[in-house]
Amino acid sequence: MAKLAPKLLTLSECEREELEKLLNRRSAPQQIVLRAKIILLAEEGNNNREIGRELNITRVMARRWRDRWLELSLRSLPVIERLVDSERRGKPATFSMEQVVELFALACSQPEDYGRPISHWTSRELAEEMVKQGIVESISPRHVGRLLEEAQIKPHQNRYWLTPPPR
C-alpha cells in the first residue's frame, strides 16, 4: 500500500519572518508558538510523523494544523489569525446580558418590594419572579443559582449590604 505524502506547504518570506518573530516573542501564548513551529517544520519538508516526533505531539495534530494553515492561506488571513483557535461549536447563550443584569438587580432587592412574603430570595423564587415580570420566558432555579454563584451574589446575605452595619 502506497503512503500518501502530506500536502506541500510553502511560505512567503513575510510569513516565515512573522512565524519566526512569534517564536522569539516572550509573551506569545505557547499554543500559538507550537503551531508556528509545526508550520515552519512543515515548510522545511518534514512529514507529519517527523513533526510529531520533533515536537512531541501527535501526527494528527501536525496534520490538522498543516491542513488548517493551507485552508486559511487561501483566504489571505494574517499569520496570527491562522494560528488561533477557531470558534467553538455549541449552543449560543440563552439569556442576554441585560436579562442577567436584571436578575442580579432583582436578587439585590428586597422580596417584600415584589409582594413576596419571604425574608430572602431563593433561586426558585427568583426564577418565578423573572418569569412573572416577563424578563425571561422560562429559567430553571438551578440556572439562576449558577448565574448568582458565578457573580458571587448571595441573596440570603442581602440584608447586610442594604442596611448599614450595626455600630
In short:
The chain is mainly alpha-helical. The protein contains nine helices and no strands. The mean pLDDT is 86.
What report would you give on this structure?
The chain has two domains: 13-83, no CATH class; 97-162, no CATH class. The chain is an all-alpha fold and 167 residues long. It contains nine helices and no strands. The mean pLDDT is 86. Helices cover 54% and strands 0% of the residues. It has helices spanning 13-24, 30-43, 48-55, 59-73, 79-83, 97-107, 123-132, 141-150, 158-162.
Q: What characteristics describe this protein?
A:
54% helix, 167 residues, Helix-turn-helix domain-containing protein, 2 domains, Homeodomain-like_sf, mainly alpha, rod-shaped
H-E string:
HHHHHHHHH
Give the overall pLDDT as a whole number. Answer: 86
Q: What structural category characterises the helix and strand content? A: mainly alpha
H/I helix tally: 9
Helix content: 40-55%
Number of strands: 0
Overall geometry = rod-shaped
Instruction: Report the span from N to C terminus.
Output: 85 Å
Assess the beta-strand content as a share of residues: under 5%
Domain tally: 2
| Major sheet characteristics | none
Low-confidence stretches: none
Radius of gyration over C-alpha positions, nearest whole angstrom: 27 Å
Protein name: Helix-turn-helix domain-containing protein
Organism: Cyanomargarita calcarea GSE-NOS-MK-12-04C
Pfam families: HTH_32
Draw up the topology in text.
Layout (H helix, E strand, L loop, with lengths): L12 H12 L5 H14 L4 H8 L3 H15 L5 H5 L13 H11 L15 H10 L8 H10 L7 H5 L5
Helix pairs in contact: 1-2, 2-3, 2-4, 3-4, 7-8
Pfam families: HTH_32 (PF13565)
Protein name: Helix-turn-helix domain-containing protein
InterPro entries: Homeodomain-like_sf (IPR009057)
